[in-house]
Fold this sequence. Notes:
The structure holds 2 protein chains of 2 kinds.
Chain A: H1 3-27, H2 36-40
Chain B: E1 3-9, H1 11-37, H2 52-84, H3 91-113, H4 127-149, H5 158-177, E2 180-184, E3 187-190, H6 194-229, H7 236-250, H8 265-277, H9 279-291, H10 297-302, H11 304-326, H12 329-335, H13 339-368, H14 376-408, H15 421-426, H16 429-459, E4 465-471, H17 485-491, H18 493-517, H19 533-544, H20 559-565, H21 600-608, H22 610-613, H23 635-644, H24 653-674, H25 684-694, H26 698-708
Antiparallel strand pairs in B: 1-4, 2-3
The complex binds protoporphyrin IX containing FE (2 copies).
One protoporphyrin IX containing FE (HEM) binds at residues 28, 31-32, 34-35, 56, 59-60, 63-64, 68, 341-342, 345-346, 349-350, 353-354, 439, 442-443, 549, 584-585, 587 of chain B.
Amino acid sequence: MSVIFILILASLTIAVGFLVAFIWSVKTNQFEDDYTPSIRILFENEVKQVDEPIKDKNR
Amino acid sequence: MELQKFQYDNKIVKWFAYATMLWGIVGMVAGLLAAIQLFLPAANLDLPYTSFGRVRPVHTNAVIFAFVGNGIFMGVYYSLQRLLKARMFSDMLSKIHFWGWQLIIVLAAISLLLGKTTGKEYAELEWPIDILITLVWVVFGWNMFGTILKRRERHLYVAIWFYIGTFVTVAMLHIVNSIEIPVSFWKSYSWYAGVQDALVQWWYGHNAVAFFLTTPYLGLMYYFLPKAANRPVYSYRLSVIHFWSLIFIYIWAGPHHLLYTAVPDWAQSLGVVFSVMLIAPSWGGMINGLLTLRGAWDKVREDAVLKFLVVAVTAYGMATFEGPMLSLKSVSAISHYTDWIVAHVHVGALGWNGFMTFGILYWLIPKLFRTELYSKRMANWHFWIGTLGIVLYAIPMYWSGIMQSLMWKDFTPEGQLKWQFMDTVNVMIPFYITRAIGGALFLTGAIMMVYNLIKTIKIGNFLANEDAEAPALEKTFAKHGKEHWHRIIERKPVQMMIVSLVVVMIGGIIEFVPTFLVKSNIPTIAQVKPYTPLELQGRDIYIREGCYTCHSQMIRPFRSETSRYGEYSKAGEFVYDHPFQWGSKRTGPDLARIGGKYPDSWHYSHMLDPTSMSPGSIMPAYPWLFDDQVDVSSTVAKIKAMKRLGVPYPEGYEKIAASEMEKQAKGIAANLEKDGMKTKSDREIVALIAYLQRMGTDIKKTATDTTKK
Ligand code: HEM
Ligand code: HEM
């Protein structure tokens, strides 16, 4: 059943990795504001397109 | 703060979108072909390449890794750039990623049709392709993290967390599960054997579902649903909780695929507990998705995109409610091995993945081509046809699954099994036909979509590089705002980390200790011996033909199974099985104890024409096994590989392997000849019969031996 060690080790590595990521994200105030991000994604600052007189139509 | 100008790369998104459509159709055609073969075996054209055991892996690999895979990349490459206010890290990496992935798909399709397979579900691809997958996956991650590092938006929107989770976990799963020992360029043996292989495989298999079909699509949901509805997600905080709880629970649920098998009990129970817990975050996510549309339901009535997304989220809810139920041992006792699982799979696959992909495509293509969808009416028709397709697929499969399971378990008042296995197959036919109709409808809808989108592309005007601007990222951190639950964590980071580690360790210890206490969970059975060279070759033919896609090799400890198939399977019986072949579906009967049940001649006739031995059988015929010769030259390499994996063949066995093989084959040929069947002893059918006759007999030997003594 030794393979279980590998699986647990691998799973734990992932879990600990994400734990660290979680702590990092909390510490860097990633979740400080839990409202604006949801609004922000709705706005795309449309920039007037001036580039290539788009010929690149199909493919 | 200077305003920086940059451009989004739309071209890569377009390519992935085209690939999604192409492979979607291909994968579903393969699915439909498989579905038709289950009531009309002749639909395999009697060719090895289109035989069910090969078409089914082509279907699963194509829809999961080609259709859903490209769909993931399409959505990630579109949303990541916009969420991070940055172009993808490197156009070159994007290109390598795209073409590398398509190359993998083409190689996969060809090799699977040719029967090059490892025999592990969803990980069938042989080792050279496994390596290629690893490399391309790394390119994807490199490109993604590169973009994250050069982002112009400090906050990582929750979708990005889902993408990161997907990337990291899939990388690890793929590597651990693919550890195999090459025998030749297109043949390898799994490093693990039997129970161990099963555990690794379903740890992988479950997480392939979790981290390929679920988490990336949740990321897409959190981006595209609000965008399509033009409304913020109902609760951003809930979405963050959804991510973190999923990521910590999902990895432990794998053993729910192995309930009542020879896997240790405590591992099974652990899988059950985590699976049941999964319902909470999953439903939180579903509700979050649906409530995003509060006050916008009038839009849903008109907008095909929203309709697709709503049904997708609902299907996610259904599959994640059903999943934890299927993980309960008492439910699994009924559902495992049956069409019920196939129904569960396709509610998720067709509803959640399929409809989500369709919705995103309908939204994205007009945007990329700066035009309106060619025909909204047709999109709405697609929606209704697709929905009907799902219904006609799922309902018959639930019905037939439960019915078949109950028939398997039915006893007469005298205590005899009430139904022959063939009886339970015959009643399946109408359901299989209805399912194929449902699948055909779903496919029709998808074809309509492709037509509609091609028309849209024709009238549209594609923008390869979209201008954007954003201020560069400041170096300072945001100010500290109002107090929240996580502020407490933040103020005590070290304490928090210790507490969390302890929690995780406790989980680990619970799994470790029993393993330490019990010296080994696999009792060795002295009578279980390695396969002879001929049996080994036969086993490889069994793997090549994908017999495991319809036959299990795992008798669960129920009276209904032991009286039908014999003594229940013990962990110790599989110690030389590289890879394990337990299977997950019983379209045909279990084969774990088929050895010695019938004479050689029965198998000979049966493989040539299954209906000759069991009238009404839907098993395909394997005429090519009677013409093709066993590849004797590979025997030495195979024995050597097995020895390296610890299979105790005697010293120098590979030298006498060829002659041993010939001896055994001659014996079987002579045996067949007695029954009037003339065959050369070097044919594949002989090797296959050798394997079939060996299966599950080792522990029977014990029984007879002891009685003799
Ligand atoms: C036209 C649509 C489709 C049809 C007709 C179809 C048909 C089938 C059939 C006949 C099987 C074999 C079932 C058996 O062995 O009893 C199967 C298995 C499977 N299909 Fe599909 N399928 C379709 C679409 C999809 C899609 C879109 C996905 C994924 C995104 C998918 C994922 C799977 C998986 C994962 C399995 C294996 C299930 C298991 O091992 O339990 N299918 N499908
Ligand atoms: C909370 C979430 C879920 C849980 C706990 C869960 C649980 C399960 C269980 C217990 C099985 C049956 C294994 C067996 O008896 O053979 C299963 C099979 C499966 N599920 Fe789920 N499920 C969940 C969600 C999903 C979703 C959302 C999808 C798809 C998009 C999905 C796709 C599959 C597939 C492909 C299989 C077939 C595996 C095979 O036997 O080949 N599941 N799941």
